[in-house]
Amino acid sequence: MHPAKLQKRTISDLQTVLKTAAGRRVLWRILQAAQIRQHGFVPRDELATAFHCGQRSIGLFLLEEIEQAHAQAYQQMRSEYQAEVTALQNQLQQETEHE
Fold first, then answer.
1. For 10-54, how does the pLDDT look when each residue is reduced to its tens digit (9 = 90+)?
2. What is the rounded distance in angstroms from the CA atom of residue 81 to the CA atom of residue 96?
3. How far apart are CA 21 and CA 82, in angstroms?
């Protein structure tokens, strides 16, 4: 397949995934697991450093692909995640108060 067509298909595929809440949640979990907002350095452990840097590299690749498909997607996923965490915290607080 021609590289331009392949890139266009890749972007279209990601746009399709990003249209669903479930797709955004899956991508968010992958980005979180890749620890893209953390550095990979582990003092006195070169193998762990290499492992974390590899994880992060894949996460950054995925983030770049996501941003090409939908510029605001990361912020949307982050906001949805924060709203979900807040809702769960509120639910736990209400359950604790009723005990």
1. 999 999 999 999 999 999 999 999 999 998 899 999 999 999 999
2. 23
3. 14
Residue 24 in contact with residue 76, Cβ under 8 Å? yes
What are the helix (H) ranges across the chain? 3-18, 21-33, 46-69, 73-97
What is the C-alpha to C-alpha distance for residues 11 and 22, in angstroms, rounded to an integer? 18
Three-state SS at 86: helix
Handedness of CA 18, 22, 27, 31 (dihedral sign): positive
Instruction: Specify burial of residue 15 (Cβ count, 10 A radius: 0-12, 13-18, 19+).
Output: middle
- Answer yes or no: pTM beyond 0.70: yes
How distant is the alpha carbon of residue 90 from its chain centre? 24
